[in-house]
Amino acid sequence: MRILITNDDGIASPGLRAAVRACRSVGDVTVVAPATQQSGVGRSISLLEPVRVEEIEIEGIDALAISGTPADAVLIGAFSIMDEPPDLVVSGINLGENVSADITTSGTVGAALEAYGNGIPAIAISQEVRDARARVDNNAKDVDFTLAIRVLKALLETIRGVSWEGVLNVNVPDPDRWNGEIKVVPLASTMYRPRIEERYDPRGRRYYWIDGEIIQDPPEGTDLYELQRGSIVITPLTTDVTGDLDAAENVIKELRRALRG
Amino acid sequence: MRILITNDDGIASPGLRAAVRACRSVGDVTVVAPATQQSGVGRSISLLEPVRVEEIEIEGIDALAISGTPADAVLIGAFSIMDEPPDLVVSGINLGENVSADITTSGTVGAALEAYGNGIPAIAISQEVRDARARVDNNAKDVDFTLAIRVLKALLETIRGVSWEGVLNVNVPDPDRWNGEIKVVPLASTMYRPRIEERYDPRGRRYYWIDGEIIQDPPEGTDLYELQRGSIVITPLTTDVTGDLDAAENVIKELRRALRG
Questions:
Q1: Is the torsion defined by CA of A34, A132, A115, B40 positive or negative?
Q2: How far apart are CA A84 and CA B253, in angstroms?
């Protein structure tokens, strides 16, 4: 199995090294990942900027650090660096959970969706991090990837044996919180309530920080709920964001009349 | 009706001014938009960088140019600039169509999804542009927004009269290509086949351009197909990217066995 690994925390992330350790025992690994932290960029693609690359060694294998986004890494890796597209893209292991419909802002998930949108099966995998600061800190020493590595390895061995062409979003709780369950569940509708902080710099110029509070009572049976319970949660994803066609048709009937009139 | 307008082509875009002209006749307008071109950033949110703002006048009304993304503009506009969240977010009018499941990389659509994800109904509206260069050229003189303005105005008047809480993706063909039809259709699975160009700078350093070719034979009944036929195409969207749970459950059964063993 030929596996392209990327992430959104950047090439220096211990989570990327953990993904390499899990994948190399199961397949041939190519690593193309953003040079810098890209949290929150979703499925962003660099259309207006060229993407630079730099060669680097990770866990003893050659890797490419790119100036762009996780989705860029998938496109450049799969359609230029590799002789032919990989059998699988693995994105992660992300520092911090990626759950709820808010994951469309996640670069980890964005890379997986970009792969899937181009016909390549993909796994996005994220490690729950209870300390908010550790989520964007590649030097975080106390993140324990042992369970995530075990899950990823077993998942790779599983899908190697079946015909599977999807994209999975996997979240792994802190190993000491795991309740022993693996749940296949839908996304919660949202994880964060937005909180915007207005500030002024030393020269009196206004700026904003975008932040959010995690919702503490997610609906039962959703990924956020199950992760809070300590389950490993797995959600199959789709790139098709088509909504309720019948409801829209009702609104558009009026519009047709208005434009004819 | 209180309307927050944003876009992804940036504050200088003639499409943003066209949206203001359409919306101001129907409601109270607030404009918060990226200072610079943000095509391709999807639902990207600035989590690691502060967002700066600058006041500017557009079509005679006060507007804010921000240093961030379209989704940032929605969050800052709806949850900080405005006293309370708007009744509607309008994102566009984008220079260039946004069709197929590839729209999750569109900043225009990303802003609308960010609004919807936070409980605010939204319309993303894009004007077909046949000349690829004009898509990222805010000085493009020959883009005719007359039909798009007419559609947007009529749509605002329509939804003002009904209870509607969704998000619509609207694409308007060149006025001289309009076949008179308005179609409510699902997204095509993809619009582009990726094409990556490897180049070398004058100092011999490698870099890449990400590009793509538009697929010329989209499946019948999809948004791309209908837009190519000259229809106005409207697709309701969702932020819920949960895929096929049953198919995933089959794969995960194996995984459960492996992790128990």
A1: negative
A2: 31
d(CA A150, CA A155): 9
Whether residue A219 contacts residue A186, with contact meaning beta carbons closer than 8 Å, is answered with no
Nearest-5° Cα angle at B239, B226 to B228: 10
Sort A146 into a burial class: Cβ within 10 Å, 0-12 / 13-18 / 19+.
exposed
Contact A40 B47 (CB under 8 A): yes
pLDDT tens track for B222-259: 999 999 999 999 999 999 999 999 999 999 998 999 88
pTM as predicted: 0.94
Pairing state between β A51-58 and A28-34: unpaired
Pairwise CA distance, residues A110 & A101, whole Å? 12
Of B44, B52, B243, the CB nearest to A41: B44
For CA atoms A56, A62, A67, A68, give the dihedral sign.
negative
B164 vs A contacts (CB less than 8 Å): 247, 251
Structural contact between residues B78 and B6, judged by C-beta atoms closer than 8 angstroms: no
- ipTM surpassing 0.85: yes
Task: Please report the residues numbered 179 through 198 in chain B whose beta carbons come closer than 8 angstroms to any beta carbon of chain A.
Answer: 182, 184-187, 189-190, 194-196, 198
Q: Angle at Cα A19 formed by Cα A17 and Cα A23, nearest 5°?
A: 120
Spell out the residues 6+ positions from residue A21 whose beta carbon is closer than 8 angstroms to its own: A59, A149
CB-count exposure of residue B165 (10 Å: 0-12, 13-18, 19+): exposed
Instruction: Find the largest Cα–Cα distance for chain A.
Output: 69
Beta strands in chain A (DSSP E): 2-6, 28-34, 51-58, 61-66, 88-95, 122-127, 167-172, 182-184, 192-200, 206-214, 232-236
**Listed residue (A90, A99, A71, A125) closest to A191, CA to CA:** A99
**Could you tell me if A247 lies within 8 Å of chain B, comparing CB atoms?**
yes
Per-residue pLDDT of chain A (261 residues), as tens digits, is 999 999 999 999 999 999 999 999 999 999 999 999 998 999 999 988 999 999 999 999 999 999 999 999 999 999 999 999 999 999 999 999 999 999 999 999 999 999 999 999 999 999 999 876 666 666 666 799 999 999 999 999 999 988 889 999 999 999 999 999 999 999 999 999 999 999 999 999 999 999 999 888 999 999 999 999 999 999 999 999 999 999 999 999 989 998 886
B90: closest CA among B41, B142, B159? B159
DSSP output for A137-149 = -TT------HHHH
Look at residues B227, B132, B210, B121 and name the one whose alpha carbon lies nearest to residue B166.
B121
Q: How many CB atoms lie within 10 A of CB A161?
A: 9
Length of chain A: 261
